[in-house]
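INTERNAL TRANSFER SHEET
From: sequence group
To: structure group
Subject: ToMV susceptible protein tm-1(GCR26)

Please process the attached sequence and return the structure record in the designated field. Keep the field labels unchanged so the import script can parse them.
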Amino acid sequence: MVKKTVLKVSIPCQKCKTKLLKAVSALHGVDKIEVDSSKGTLTVTGDVDPYDVILRARKAGKYAEVVSIGAPPPPPKQDGQKKADDKKPAEKKPDARAAQIHTPYDCPICQQMAVVYVPRWEEPDPSCSIMFIIRRVFCVGTADTKLDELRFLADSVRSHVAAFAANPRFTVEVAVVDVSAGQDEIQSVEGLIFTPRKELLSQYFEFNNQKPQKLPDDRGEAVSLMSKALEIYLKRASEDQILAGAIGLGGSGGTSLISSAFRALPLGLPKVIVSTVASGQTEPYIGSTDLVLFPSVVDVCGINSVSRVVFSNAAAAFAGMVIGRIDTCREKNKVDAKSTVGVTMFGVTTPCVNAVIERLSKNGYETLVFHATGVGGRAMESLVREGFIQGVLDITTTEVADHIVGGVMACDSSRFDAVIEKRVPLVLSVGALDMVNFGARDAIPSSFQQRKIHEHNKQVSLMRTTVEENKKFADFIANKLNKSSSKVCVCLPEKGVSALDAPGKPFHDPDATAALVNELQKLINTNNDRKIKVYPYHINDVEFANAIVDSFLEINKNNGKEFSPQTSVAVSIEDSNVGAVPTMGYSSFKATMYSPSDFPDAHPETLKRTQAILHQLQDQINRGIPIIGAGAGTGISAKFEEAGGVDLIVLYNSGRFRMAGRGSLAGLLPYADANAVVLDMANEVLPVVKAVPVLAGVCGTDPFRRMDYFLRQVESIGFFGVQNFPTVGLFDGNFRQNLEETGMGYGLEVEMIAKAHKMGLLTTPYAFNEDESAEMAKAGADIIVAHMGLTTSGSIGAKTAVTLEESVVRVQAIANATHRINSHAIILCHGGPISGPKEAEFILKNTEGVHGFYGASSMERLPVEKAIKSTVQEYKLISLK
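Return from structure group:
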């Protein structure tokens, strides 16, 4: 339908006008564009969505206010326009013409454009710029199976938004977003603002610099792709300040698809899912976000007397969130913002935390208290990353105990990273590190049943930690804090770390507490910014609470001044631009890479050797020299790979098949015991390699070997590390899906790498996509090898493979996914069309954060083929005459 959209914009110079015209004219369906610089209006006529016009204006650096949307104005208004036009010939404003001369330093819009392209953009202050008035909420679901439900939900949201909106100056549109993963595609729906899935996929492929592709036939892959596409689509709408909220509906599959994308939306943006799993185990769907799951009561299957009530109530609640947030955002600059501090608490540290909160409040701080249950710590650090928290008093670090020992309220290995990376002031203590949390008494692992157990209630049992465990906690904490470059103060109470760790209480153990305090003092490297203070108090003594607050006030520069989340985000962006928070840099590699508590099963000599290798490789990268790894199937191959200067050598069973004239896939078929073959190859290769690290290709899915014992055997033979080969990553389609479904999937390879990492072995796994690389990074992989499939060149090379250009995109995606988890991981490319030095150089020159190449067939089979063939041909040229 043809519409006339009139926006109020600021157009102070010709360059601004040209930029705006160019942006809007690219829209499909535009019939006419009028720009009136003197009035500051943009008028677009045609079959084009006003939402798209606003987006284009925003991308051109323009803030816009909707003047009108709809049919052309009535005649009286046109007469008024004519009168305005009649005045134009007089040209009594020479200064207006002068304003058309572009002077960038005097043009406020150009000044804004200079800073608009930052990783995260905050809504401008309404007092100095015009805000968008039109907003959209998205109703998300699988339209191929839930169209009736989506239509009802969208209509309900629209109705409730209209009823709740008291201010007519803003408009909230309701759009349905299709995330169907089936093969049938819906292009449009009558009576609805409808976004087909092809739009989501288009934005996803554009964002990842990929060519548009058809949705995969495999449902699992299709669902994963649609979830990622939805995340990109919603993020863009949020960053453009158009998205006012998102509501979805679905069963377990739909909830999983939608929730993954919703979790990526900012805190405070309304996000709701009406779901069949809302009353079950919801942590996988919600994580540490403010996503709301609304129980559907009945299955999301049609509109009936129950679903009608549930959907309507959910729509009303969601509409209230949307309107309330818009009103709040309009008033947010009138509210004084306090500096916000995150505090961790357990029931057994409550007296300390309460005293701390009371004093902080008197000093002008707002406190956010987080229950240290694993989720609590993650939630706090998520808010630190988003800039909502400007200081942390991590009083209750009990999640570390559960992480190290195996309790049910554990953090993960990233604990403390956000606080350190964002460089916010940190005061840390050791609250409740005297205990590990379990469920009911009979749910405690049998290996712990003889330990000192305290039943907190019928659902929660606590186990006292030992001297040795406390030393491990100190290792974990110290190695995290030693990476910090901001203000950190560790406050340690000598007389007990919880209400249970006191004279006459069940967990009173002075030796264990002393071990914790002493080990932290020994391991933490103190300096002017990183201090340790030991106090002769119990953690719940008022004196200790005061000492904690005193320490925080001492290291916190802001001292309770107004400090909004937006200010914090701006500072973090500025810091990242000057390298304060490294992304792909490696200058801090040596200081940030190693944490002994991350290697609980490591022999000291193995760990030291691995660290030395990584340090040497990193030094090589810093000098601009790529890392080159090679596969070896024979002793002679390994010997001369070393002579050529290779950095790493990997032995795996396919090398033996390859050098016997068979394709590498033979290593994945039941022709021999893969792990036994590698152990046998060690006898041939290890004696002839003098200095280069040699790694074992380990079949992590081997059902007849216990990986912990087998990895010890690999270590004892003399291998420096491991790689996951044979790997199910080379399988796809139904066969791969069946492997995953029957417990023989890639996850076993991830577990093998995680075990090897904890043993201190060098880990260099293959990853075939972003998800696999992320999982391997989380498992602690040191080097990720981005695998592009079987090598294509030579007499027995594969014929089916991605192109070299496609490999650039895939390798970059794997590198990016890895570095989001571990910015220090080394990335190598391998396989497919990357079959020689020129191809490897092409990949390295067209990617970022990729550090070298790993070759197998390209390192031994192809050179042998060429050398033998060439040598024989030279002999055949000998003449007898």
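Handover comment: The chain has a mean pLDDT of 82. The radius of gyration is 31 Å.
Transfer complete.
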